Every structure is written in structure tokens, then in C-alpha cells.
Amino acid sequence: MMTDDFDDFTRGLQSQVYEETRKAYGQVAFERWLKPLYMGGMRDPDGYGRIIGTCGDRMEIFLRFEKNRVKEVMFQTDGCGSSTICGSFAAELAQGKSPEEITEITGELIISVLGGLPEEDRHCAFLAAQTLQEALDQYMKKQLKGNRSDK
Ligand code: FES
Asked: For site-directed labelling of 41, which of 5, 12, 73, 104 has its Cα 20 to 30 A away?
């Protein structure tokens, strides 16, 4: 009986947290929070970005290219829920894109795909976008080096 009560209590608490999160972030972000796609690391990526935001949270993005398009993309963060959501959407937006197209993925774009973000969480989207650009930058530098050593 005690355990049943306790289970009910935890379930109640959990659904309260879920409800509050859904209200604050909206349905799209809420679903992504429950299921953060593209989360994880990658061995020997073609491009890698790692940035510590002003909030102290770390964001990492890994890119693998094939025929100059993103074949695989992953992200990792030790930050808050919204940095997970933003990292996941930054990754999703980068999937299948060329370097030129990736440069168009900004914090604003991530926020608009999410249907907005609470003011205090907007920086998480900019952190994700900045990390993605850093990963792209590393890929481009490698390409440049590769081309030079061919000559
Ligand atoms: Fe810093 Fe979310 S609070 S990335």
C-alpha cells in the first residue's frame, strides 16, 4: 500500500514536471526533450566543435561528411534541458546539408523551428548554432589543408 502511494506520488510529481515543461517550451520542444535525437559522441569526426557558453555549459557537435554533405551528426551537452533541445535541433537542421547551407543555421533559426523559447533560454540556441559553426569551421580547415598537401 505504502509503495502504491509512493508510486502515485512520484507519478503525480513527474506529470507535473512534464506539464510545466510543456507549457514553458511548447509541444515541439517538449517532445524533443523527452526524446533527444542525435545525442551522443562520434569517433574520428570530420568536423568537431566544442564551446563553453557564458552560462558555463559545454556543447559539442560532431560532423561526418560524405560528398561534401553531412552524412552523420551528433551532439553532446552537460547543460540544461533547453541546451539538449537546441543541440538536437541544430543537429537535425545540419543533417544532409552542404557547408554553405550549414552557415545559414543560426540561433534565430533554431528558435523559430522550436516555435520560440523562453527569454532566459535563448542563449542555449545560440550556443548550439555557434558550436555547429565551429565544427564546420574545423572541417573546412581540414579540407583546405588536404587540398594544399595534394599540390
Ligand atoms: Fe546554458 Fe542552457 S543554460 S546552454
From this structure: 104
Could you tell me which residues come within 8 angstroms of residue 97 by beta carbon, excluding any fewer than 6 positions away? 69, 70, 105
Tell me which residue has its CA closest to atom 1 in ligand 1.
55
pLDDT digits (tens, 9 = 90+) for 70-80: 999 999 999 88
The rounded Å distance from CA 123 to ligand 1 centre is 7
pTM over 0.85: yes
Residue 45: which H helix or E strand, with range? none
The domain over range 27-150 is classified in CATH as 3.40.1160.10: no
CA distances from 49 to 52, 104, 107 (A): 10, 17, 15
CB 31 within 8 A of CB 117: no
